[in-house]
Each structure stands twice: as structure tokens, then as C-alpha cells.
Specification:
Length: 144
């Protein structure tokens, strides 16, 4: 059954991260780690004066699902606010737990085969959790 999750589409997505490098040292950042498999994702963000993500960096040391999720996050994070990233994280968490509708994040339906594989959920959530936290760090540092 878990083989249904590891599709050619997931494999291709995992290889397509548009922001595979970290931002310069000191950029607002967050790292998340899966306690189940040890996958790790670090996300760095910079926000503009309007509070929207203008730069994104990642360091992904994760399984195929963590890599694919990181790519999906990176493909659509630019222009988002910290609140929008938090909503995406929360919607993804609820959907995976079976308590919410499919999130509106573009392409997230690629993970539908993993809904019943709860041990894989942390890997799918990593990038979204790290991005939301990094954006909150960036917002807290922003001049008021």
C-alpha cells in the first residue's frame, strides 16, 4: 500500500525545489525534524515591507516525501504572508489527520495516497511547519 504513495510524480516533484540553497547567515530561519524517520527541513525567509515572503532558502535532508513537500512549499511560498503560511500549515495538518478538507495549496492533492499512512504525515508537514515558523520569526524582527 505505501508504494502507492511513491509515484513518479512524487519523485519528480522531489527533484524540483526552486530554492535549494540557504539564505545568508542571519536570515530568519526554522528547522523541523521528523521524530519517526529523522528527516530534517530548514527554511529561511525574508519578508518585504508589506510582510510578504520575497526570498526563500531551504536545506532539505529528508526522505522523498519531505523533499517533495519542500518543493511544493517552495514553488508557491513567494508572495505569501506569515498568516497565509500558518493557515497552509494548519490546513495540511488537519487534512492529514482526517479532520479537515483538502487544503487550497496548489498541488497538495499529490499527497492524497498518504492520508492513511499516518507514519508518513510528519515528513509531509515538515516544510510547511518550518516555513510558517520562519515567517513568524521574520515578522517579529520586522521594524514597526
Amino acid at each position: 500500500m505505501s508504494l502507492d504513495l511513491y509515484t513518479p510524480e512524487i519523485s519528480a516533484l522531489a527533484l524540483g525545489n526552486p530554492y535549494p540553497d540557504r539564505l545568508p547567515e542571519g536570515a530568519p530561519s526554522a528547522e523541523k525534524r521528523s521524530p519517526i524517520c529523522g528527516s530534517r527541513v530548514t527554511v529561511d525567509v525574508e519578508l518585504d515591507e508589506a510582510g510578504r515572503v520575497t526570498k526563500l532558502g531551504t536545506l532539505v535532508r529528508a526522505c522523498l516525501l519531505g523533499q517533495a513537500s519542500s518543493t511544493l512549499l517552495a514553488q508557491h511560498a513567494i508572495g505569501r504572508t506569515p498568516a497565509e503560511l500558518a493557515i497552509a500549515r494548519d490546513e495540511l495538518t488537519a487534512w492529514l489527520a482526517g479532520t479537515g478538507e483538502m487544503p487550497g495549496w496548489p498541488g497538495i492533492d499529490i499527497f492524497t495516497p498518504g492520508l492513511k499512512l499516518t507514519a508518513r504525515h510528519p515528513s509531509i508537514r515538515l516544510a510547511f511547519e518550518a516555513a510558517a515558523e520562519a515567517a513568524d520569526v521574520a515578522a517579529a524582527r520586522a521594524p514597526r
